[in-house]
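cron nightly-structures :: item 1 of 1
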Amino acid sequence: MHLATSEIELPGSRIGHLVRPERVEEPLPGVVLVQEIWGVDEHIRDVAARLAAAGYVVLAPALFSRDGGFPPPLSPERVERAKRFLDTVPPQAWAGLPDAAKRAEVLLGLAEGERGPVNETLAAIFPKDREGLLAGWAKDLALAVAWLRASPAVKGRRVGTLGFCVGGALAAEVATLDPALCAAVVFYGAPPAADRLARIACPFLAHYGAEDARLMQLLPSFEGAMRAAGKTLELHVYPGAPHAFFNDTRRSYRVEASREAWARTLSFLADRLGPKA
């Protein structure tokens, strides 16, 4: 399929990666696609293209961008280098990355000349005030949803969110901020706080890997709280799948789980955002 792709400026002076079917003139449903912690990288751009080919206008805000560009530590090249390094680090070490001393221990595996730049990037990606950063991103994403909803390419059609990892958590969080959101798809993202669930008006589809121990511990209370609040949650857990099982650029990729999750995602979006929703 021929796709029209552009980089736009969003409210908050962030860059947005916008993709839609090129030869469709009428408005289409919209999806705000929320990045993993690695930014709007090769994987996110590929997912955006897949969604657009399925008949959606897709907007992927670059959460690291500011004023039409990127701070040096958060440039796509620097973030990609940090990602490649962390692919060599045991998952249990990630929890300590906001702490400078623990991060320094992890970075001992790098050549001395590389430690400074990678450390600077990791400090920007995993700051101590993580909650404040995510709250700000969630507000900017709600603005992006409003922008997409009002755009000529979507106007009059439904809009949903879809995100991965931290982006999954943010896709869910936007649902607590925007009562007009029509769907939220969460891939291995932490659920919203229990006291915020009452604000959710849209149905949720959530995908988790059974080997993702930290998030699996959160699922029973999340599922119970959503049911108790009368919210719609379709939850799927994939046997043998770790965290980030859908990302086919990383060693965590699991093809069987990804195939099932993607089929369910397309069906869910068609039901919730399509003309008969």
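cron nightly-structures :: done
The first strand starts at residue 3 and ends at 10.
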